[in-house]
Amino acid sequence: xxxxxxxxxxxxxxxxxxxxxxxxxxxxxxxxxxxxxxxxxxxxxxxxxxxxxxxxxxxxxxxxxxxxxxxxxxxxxxxxxxxxxxxxxxxxxxxxxxxxxxxxxxxxxxxxxxxxxxxxxxxxxxxxxxxxxxxxxxxxxxxxxxxxxxxxxxxxxxxxxxxxxxxxxxxxxxxxxxxxxxxxxxxxxxxxxxxxxxxxxxxxxxxxxxxxxxxxxxxxxxxxxxxxxxxxxxxxxxxxxxxxxxxxxxxxxxxxxxxxxxxxxxxxxxxxxxxxxxxxxxxxxxxxxxxxxxxxxxxxxxxxxxxxxxxxxxxxxxxxxxxxxxxxxxxxxxxxxxxxxxxxxxxxxxxxxxxxxxxxxxxxxxxxxxxxxxxxxxxxxxxxxxxxxxxxxxxxxxxxxxxxxxxxxxxxxxxxxxxxxxxxxxxxxxxxxxxxxxxxxxxxxxxxxxxxxxxxx
Amino acid sequence: xxxxxxxxxxxxxxxxxxxxxxxxxxxxxxxxxxxxxxxxxxxxxxxxxxxxxxxxxxxxxxxxxxxxxxxxxxxxxxxxxxxxxxxxxxxxxxxxxxxxxxxxxxxxxxxxxxxxxxxxxxxxxxxxxxxxxxxxxxxxxxxxxxxxxxxxxxxxxxxxxxxxxxxxxxxxxxxxxxxxxxxxxxxxxxxxxxxxxxxxxxxxxxxxxxxxxxxxxxxxxxxxxxxxxxxxxxxxxxxxxxxxxxxxxxxxxxxxxxxxxxxxxxxxxxxxxxxxxxxxxxxxxxxxxxxxxxxxxxxxxxxxxxxxxxxxxxxxxxxxxxxxxxxxxxxxxxxxxxxxxxxxxxxxxxxxxxxxxxxxxxxxxxxxxxxxxxxxxxxxxxxxxxxxxxxxxxxxxxxxxxxxxxxxxxxxxxxxxxxxxxxxxxxxx
Lengths: 457, 429
Description:
The complex is a heterodimer.
Chain A: H1 9-18, H2 25-31, H3 36-44, H4 61-76, H5 81-93, H6 104-116, H7 122-130, H8 133-138, H9 152-162, H10 176-185, E1 189-190, E2 200-201, E3 211-213, E4 221-223, E5 225-226, E6 239-240, H11 241-247, H12 256-269, H13 276-288, H14 293-301, H15 304-307, H16 319-330, H17 338-342, H18 367-381, H19 399-410, H20 416-426, H21 434-450, H22 452-455
Chain B: H1 2-24, H2 26-32, E1 40-46, E2 56-58, H3 67-73, E3 99-101, H4 106-113, E4 117-124, H5 132-141, H6 153-160, E5 168-171, E6 186-189, H7 201-211, H8 217-237, H9 254-271, E7 281-286, H10 303-325, E8 331-337, E9 360-365, E10 372-374, E11 393-394, H11 395-406
Parallel strand pairs in B: 1-7, 1-8, 4-10, 4-11, 5-6, 5-7
Antiparallel strand pairs in B: 2-3, 4-9, 8-9
């Protein structure tokens, strides 16, 4: 085994930030010294269960806040970090907003579906989302029936969820005719507006006519296309139309769906742009595994390119990552008010802005979002609004030692000039005095949490 | 920080005037200072695809079967003639069918009668995508073939006169791609009223120094955003956003609040030109126009009628604020959406909605607008292969008019594929 395969503390901290939500120093130390494979396998070793958060039939603001809080607590649990990082990815990938679906039970159910398949079969996940109550409401699938076809879900299923509008050479992956054909094949799902509704596929609502999808291309399918479900349906269609999405090939005969998802997952975990060679390599892994998400994630998180210097400080943290990393690194318990901060930071859970999820990259650090991060940092360092932060200052500490320990805790590497500013803040009042604890010490944490380096990982 | 900003702005004003003379020509000088007399463009983006046919409704079959096709295509969505008598648009009969605004747009109709509203019909790009994201990209970028990393059409105008100060504000927190630029800074603002730095001034000063250190790549982009934030926070925090009699005083959140805060900035600039904001561009987003289902017809408690009724209140209140403040002669509001919707309804009964389409609607509001109906209503007996209304007006002919005739710029320097034949939308100042 190559020596480079062993994680040092810096690698371990990088892995726990990206594959999870950050970690306190003792957790980082626990992962250091393991091989990449051992470390990632430990993260992957979570049973696939559809664990569901609280949420009843009736929507209310309080119910939504309970569900959001439940999910945030799970994110902060060391055991579930990779699973929950994937649940968050799937929520971003297959978004549903409480503004449209004001039913906490449906949102909790969808969230549990993402958890069940978080690291499992992507085929099963796509099939599950297609008949998921929240999605059927969000993108109107429940209203799409024979003769009254609604194109909303079919279009986004191809454009945003599986293929992308065009391949890497700019050639369209499908036509408007394909949107209509797929929409017809996806007709028939419905459920009643009752407290415990079951999603059903009914023959009366299904368009049983002949359809041609991807006409004239090598992977064209035709016949009574529809959705087959493992539970059985009253009228199994001849061809499972969802399989056709997996069979799609780009104009260079490469697997479109695998490449699309690899690029998106790489950007989620590593750097904004995966190079072509990396996409070739990882999509081959994904296809060979039979579209097992866990296999792809393992290949990704153990890859040299994931640990390369170019991958560090390459990607603006999402608002949730900023908040959780700060809380975990500083040993602050999850405050009930966190969602009040996540919203202005641009990332309310169960409230993605549109069907394409959250906009990533520098958009996370627009001026007003940066401001919202400073507001959360200010509340943390001054223990405001239900937040309790107890900075640990050893009796014999010097400003320099305290700064170094804090930088290590936050996983930060900063310039000599930034160090000097932080020391200036620490030296404003007599070291160790009450005034120092109330004024100078919060300044140190505020400057570091507000530094550009802490916004990026 | 306020004082330093004021003195900095003075310097900027002088230097951009200078730059205007020697480098940029009159295009830059016209607005770069952002103070008295310079034009202000307010963009309102209806996100999701606003339904042209139920916003500007055909009334008869003059010149072609418009009304009869409309009723046949939309048995559950057609706005009945009986509801349209008060919002009938007076326009050139040569354009064909009679038209009326949706009854929820009574305030806009009043502005129309005053000659302050231009309705641009069938706006879009021929053959445009039915995808939200591809369609809106071409509106943002101002070209049909969207290339990666392209800047926005307004962003390129900003680049022409970039002077190190932000001149544009994007409401809603995240910056619209319309304003994406290479050099110019754009402020993302969730609310002007809450744009105040937390914590102690001493710490802000230290953070300012940290943000000013040399960095590269994404770190520099982040640091730059932080620098603008710290530079602007005390200034914006001092703007009186309420309490001065705005017609939108009661709008506590959302686009109505955004427009009130824009009016508040204009008020500040008018009262204190020496410390003017310098903002000449604003962008506001209005969500939920993707009416695939339960679109509704007249009931303003939900669906499309509610969207239009809110929009009517906001646009009218904003225009009245501008008049009260005495700045309505230099502000243009441009309302746009990524596409219009399909001609036919997609379901029967209350579920009826409309899928993505093509030809859409742009609205221009302001004293400088050449009021009336511009462009042709797409024909309902000549839908395209997808069943969408055809595009009858290339939106770049509108952009060109705004750039040249309102901003005093040169659209050939901003829009690829120029020159475009400008629509006569703007009256001389």
